Amino acid sequence: MLPQNGVEALCQALPFRGGASLCRQPEPALASPSVKPVPTEDSEEFSMALARRAFIAGGAHTQYLGKGHPDFIWKRHPDFGKRENPTLEDTLQEAVDGCLADTGVNPADIDRLYIGNFVGELFVNQGHLGSALAGTHPDFAFKPAARLEGACASGGLALLAGLDAIAAGADLVLVAGVEIQTTASARTGGDYLARASHYRRQRSLDDFTFPAMFARRIKAYGERYGLTDEDLAHFAVKAYANANLNPLAHMHSKTCTFEHAKSAHDRNPNFLGNEEFRPYLKVTDCSQVSDGASVLLLASEAGIAKLGRTLSDTVEIAGRGHAVDSLYTDGDMTELTTVRHATHQAMVDAGISVGDLDIAEVHDCFTIAELMSYEAIGLADKGQGAALAASGATALDGKVPVNTGGGLIGFGHPVGATGVKQPLELFRQMKGRCGDYQVGRPLTWGLTSNMGGDDKTVVSFAVRNHQ
Ligand code: ACO
Questions:
Q1: Closest ligand 1 atom to the C-alpha of 454?
Q2: What are the pLDDT digits (tens) for 156-203?
Q3: What is the pLDDT of residues 442-456, one digit of tens each?
């Protein structure tokens, strides 16, 4: 065991992990949350506490790439016809190589490998990605490797599988996420991505099924609490501003002013075909159709020793949440109930509350999803998510910066990679590796929220920095 002080030892001895919160004095929350943390009495029933501690030892992202990025090859690019965009194989290889270089791990020492991917079969005619991951290094041959799928939460599920492997005795586990989506038009891609909805029931909402589902949420939320285009513009402007500081971001070179985002116009159209929902969603409210991969290395305490590293080189995944709701029903359109369950479970598991958070990565597949995530986590009261964003509290220099690299709207959303990217971003921020978008103060606790479908499969991690 790693050394721990007496107070921590006492906390460990409490009957469930949530008991550790007794040993921390939470700072006041940004707003007194109207959504209460999942009660600790319930936490035994739902406890996901790890049998062995698990740490992120490092990792790498590829460039997140797609329409709007200067390196993305399309018909008006000067290199069109001369070179192609990176394939799934290229993208995965680059991220794995980056992770091996970053951590210095001997590939032969890696015990297991997991990969998150949503619809490789549709965008690039390629399934069986556990085997593709095993093919990224000769020393991976014959090791256990598998793909996990849970729509846009596929990466989060891969990391959960990695944590289970650590709990079962593995010391070093490679976790990857990858998606290539630019092989199809946004409209055709909208059909592929609609596989994350209940296709039989919901596909006909719009050619762009998911944008329409979240436009429906904007409408419902506005009817209950009031919501303007200006309110949502704050989220888009923050996402692009952060991405402009992040060289790996899909939208690194695209600026988005408040003037541009605050209303629909020819360059920011309401693009849905569904007449009921069309007025509620603009292009700037949407995450990107991106290609990209993220890969991280999970380590047990013994794994850290094998790497020749110390605890202070890592961040700990101190809590995790995993909640799934039925594909066949629609919940409350004004809140992300499953996000609430998963994120609160992760915080209880880690023995923290929302007031402890220094930073977060949330699933802003659309601007309304970031707003509702604030409320689901408890960063803002119900109806106050937009006010929190407008206050600047979640900006890079705010009290709890959210999506510092640009989130799904600015950094991009290669869907299978997003759930791996988020905890790796917390690692990078906590270790001071974010360059121009580095938060300028020490960070102790972070939270991720990775959502598959319309609030259906949610994976959350509470991450603690070891300094
Ligand atoms: N005026 C009117 N209509 C326009 C205009 C304009 N100036 N520009 C575009 N449109 C319409 C057109 O109908 C166009 O479709 P068409 O090209 O077939 O005619 C449509 O908008 C899309 O335009 P594109 O140029 O294809 O837009 P782009 O490629 O930039 O894509 C979009 C923008 C549609 C918002 C895309 O980024 C997208 O689909 N994002 C969401 C991705 C998604 O849903 N991911 C899953 C999230 S769910 C989750 O994570 C849980």
A1: 51
A2: 999 999 999 999 999 999 999 999 999 999 999 999 999 999 999 999
A3: 999 999 999 999 999
Q: Which helix (H) or strand (E) holds 56?
A: strand 55-61
39 has pLDDT over 60: no
Given pLDDT bands bounded at 50, 70 and 90, which one contains residue 236? very high
| Domain assignment of residue 194, yes or no | yes
**Ligand 1 in reach of 176 Cβ (< 6 A):** no
The DSSP H or E segment spanning 452 is strand 445-452
In this structure, the strands spanning 315-324 and 55-61 are antiparallel
Give domain status of residue 298, yes or no.
no
The residue whose CA has the least distance to atom 15 of ligand 1 is 187
Ligand 1 atom with the smallest distance to the CA of 451 is 51
CA of 131 to the centre of ligand 1 (A): 33
Strand partners, 447: 360, 462
Give the residue, by CA position, lying nearest to ligand 1 atom 51.
Answer: 453
36 pLDDT above the threshold of 60:
no
Q: Is residue 248 a part of any domain in this protein?
A: yes
Q: Which residue range(s) make up the domain with 279?
A: 186-285
Rounded to 5 degrees, φ, ψ at 289 are: -90, 100
Identify which of 152, 260, 278, 289 to mutate to test ligand 1's pocket (most ligand atoms within 8 A of the CB): 289
Q: Is residue 84 part of a domain?
A: no
Whole-model pTM?
0.91
Q: How many helices (H) and strands (E) does the chain have?
A: 17, 9
Measured in Å, residue 241 CA sits from the centre of ligand 1 at 21
Which residue's CA is minimally distant from atom 44 of ligand 1? 210
